[in-house]
DNA sequence: GTGAAAGCGCTAACAC
DNA sequence: GTGTTAGCGCTTTCAC
């Protein structure tokens, strides 16, 4: 293992019979502008190629005080939406010669602090975060040290750069549609009430009811958290309380939906005529027994904007606008009888 | 942005009125063994804490010629199995103070070369790869430079360190069961015939037929590739050829199954009595209209062994055994009538 | 046109 | 007990 020792610029220089400085110029393609003799240049390049010279990224990072690395912090990489987003972002990074570091928080604010500190100590040039925190004070402070972009979730009136999907509009439209079919019973299952996705989607839910002329009943709104099991429990409790499955349910995120589906699978409810809708899409929903309407985020756009923001911030530019809101798409699967 | 300039060990030393060397000793917790005065030590530590001193990882990496970073290369992070594996591996790495770099190849050998080179140039200490290559010559060569562990897929007689799930045994058992129910028609949809998962799972398929006393018909075996669309196309062609859906199908990986399900969804076949089975599990399969038997890999074990191997290799140890084969679990969902 | 030297932040040998 | 120094690999003035 590790037989071949690294070849350094000093080695290349010596082999080519020039100084480190000259070799450096040539290898950085600045030989033209700084008038290095063509013959010298070719010699250096030949040696470098022949010995597979690769610059030490550590030496460079140390010198430049730049790691060409950015961090991505997400709640769960096993969540299809975040995986898709990560993939898109990784592609953008690779094309730009930037290395992406990915860490998961498991929806746990304590762990979020750990992984973020970890990335800071790794001297990432910037940080892109889908935070599980309730407020942005930590990030506000951190953003004095390095560029931060929040996405997917946003905090109360945060002024930090951020990219989110507009949840309210599509939720309103979808919920209004469902409410017209089931004006007497439509439940909202959400995560922590203080997290922005919950608040926004609940707002959309309320607007949807209003739009359909349906009066909200307080018991329709149920809060839990975004842990996988929470959707299951909320739905189980609801079924127990009603003595039957509800007529219509909107879940605020795919994790919650997952729990609901698990319960339904275990209790043979998948063939029922319950109307189910959710934020977040998944390709397997096309193959489920039950037709679920969903709201699909555009992860490619999301990733692009995050990358654009963080890149500009790192370069010291001031991107405009600093906060971006993207459109989602309704994915309708439910077919109204007749 | 970036108001606060980094504080270095030199700053700490000066503020504490000691030399860099002393400060370094103290900060690395080696003050006891090298008899630094307690008073000095406390002073240094106080200053460091007060100014939030954080060592420069780049300087350290440069000096130690170690990045405390390992690379993970997977075909698709959006594939649930790989996402789950990545998550497990990331947790292990974090606990060990190692940073994990993740890159995707999109099942494309050319891109695999790119991302691997990328990681090498990032000077990762080791590399864990689920390769889409047909042979291991590239990795054989690369392993002279740095430790490599292959997982999930293995190449022909490769002697490189690797961790794989035993596909043959569970596939045989599952297929034998299906073959007893449908001795006259059971199809195998696989990826590239030369990739190890395809070969192993096909071998298990054949053994399963033999075990059930069923004679294999050559037309039952269909090869495509592991791209999402391939399963769809193979299955569509099969349905077209038969003029009806097949009675029983085994797909060699979840990507292929995804394609089959998409076709079935579009053609209202999800309620049919076709028997479907596959390698790789997904939590949503519990909620599908059709009951799919699957073979579930143990990603936590898989990640643990990869981490164990790469860690030991990096430390210069020779792990034993160098190649590991783990057991999978049958996830039965199909209920035989009666 | 090219080379010598300094410095990025850190640690380890070796003085004192 | 503590300080001095050299060196990890690279780039960038500034001389020559």
Automatic annotation (TrEMBL), chains A, B:
Entry's Gene Ontology molecular function annotations: DNA-binding transcription factor activity; transcription cis-regulatory region binding
Keyword Transcription regulation applies: yes
CDD domains assigned to the protein according to its UniProt record, in alphabetical order: HTH_LacI, PBP1_FruR
Record-level GO BP terms: response to fructose; transmembrane transport
Occurrences of domain HTH lacI-type (ranges): 7-64
SUPFAM superfamilies: lambda repressor-like DNA-binding domains, Periplasmic binding protein-like I
Gene3D superfamilies: 3.40.50.2300, lambda repressor-like DNA-binding domains
Entry keywords, A to Z: DNA-binding, Repressor, Transcription, Transcription regulation
Matching NCBIfam families: fruct_sucro_rep (TIGR02417)
Name under which the protein is recorded: LacI family DNA-binding transcriptional regulator
Organism field: Lelliottia amnigena
